[in-house]
Write a structure and sequence with these properties.
Layout lengths: L8 E5 L4 H12 L3 E6 L2 H13 L9 E5 L5 H10 L5 E4 L14 H29 L2 E6 L12 H17 L3 H4 L3 E6 L7 H14 L3 H10 L9 H11 L11 E2 L11
InterPro entries: NAD(P)-bd_dom_sf (IPR036291), SDR (IPR050259), SDR_fam (IPR002347)
Organism: Pseudorhodoferax soli
Family: Belongs to the short-chain dehydrogenases/reductases (SDR) family.
Length: about 260
């Protein structure tokens, strides 16, 4: 299927690895020009090389990078200094650390809100009017399955990401945007095979003394698909939401989790 977005420009955040990289790769393979951003310059440059060397990348698709912290005003300014307008934006930031809510102070909450709620809102605010004027725009926010099924030790993430979900539910449905072919949707990943999950599993293994293989097996047993998701398949879902064919999908929370969430909505 031709997604109809070749030649568009996309900003993909947190794109040096994991789910962000999977989204960038899927878009590049569709002929989209991509600006990738992340904090780690070395990993980001390696990601750029991988994307440029991808045999499935159409020759015309450009790849650029900016090493910056997108959660800060300076980081966002650095990105928009390279290119002021985008047709597609994929927001993504690492989740806050787990813990007991009794131990979190105001600074912890503000940091979580800055990264996982306010930064996506700032990117949306800076982009949607231009998208509407041009008659095309796609924004996909990578959030978490914990928005649907909160996890007690991830209170910072539950709160910040749920705030973003509520905001998107309203703004995505404004006539000015929806009628101008501008869509905003959220992707809520379950358990995917990423560095973050591997680090979490390694921490559990160190804490409990259980083998890593046993912890991974237990996780898979809690997923009806009996496996972890891959960044490539996550990226394919993102690319479809960014496509011309997804113009009638907006304000939605898409849950790729292998069937783990037990609810009906």
């Amino acid at each position: 299927m031709d997604l109809g977005i070749a030649g568009k420009w996309a900003l993909v955040c947190g794109a040096s690895k994991g789910l962000g990289f999977g989204c960038a790769q899927a878009l590049v393979r569709e002929g989209v020009n991509v600006l990738i951003v992340a904090r780690g310059a070395e990993a980001l440059q390696a990601a750029e090389r991988t994307l440029l060397d991808d045999p499935q990348r159409p020759a015309a698709a450009e790849v650029r990078h900016v090493a910056a912290d997108i959660t800060t005003p300076a980081g966002r300014a650095a990105v928009f200094a390279v290119r002021p307008e985008f047709d597609i934006i994929v927001t993504n930031a690492g989740g806050p650390p787990p813990g007991d809510f009794r131990d979190w102070n105001r600074e912890d909450w503000v940091k979580a809100l800055d990264a996982n709620m306010l930064t996506p809102i700032e990117l949306i605010k800076g982009a949607v009017d231009g998208m509407a004027a041009r008659g095309f725009g796609r924004i996909v926010n990578i959030t978490s399955s914990s928005v649907k099924a909160p996890i007690d030790v991830l209170g910072l993430s539950n709160g910040a990401r749920s705030g973003l979900t509520g905001f998107v539910a309203g703004v995505a449905r404004t006539t000015k945007l929806a009628s101008a072919n501008v869509t905003i949707n959220n992707l809520l990943p379950g358990v995917f095979d990423t560095d973050r999950i591997r680090a979490t599993v390694a921490g559990q293994a160190a804490k409990t003394g259980k083998p890593v293989e046993d912890i991974v097996a237990a996780r898979k047993n809690n997923i009806p698909a009996r496996r972890l998701g891959t960044p490539a398949e996550f990226g394919a879902i993102c690319a479809f939401l960014c496509s011309q064919h997804a113009s009638y999908i907006t304000g939605q929370n898409i849950l790729p989790d292998g069937g783990a969430y037990p609810g009906t909505h």
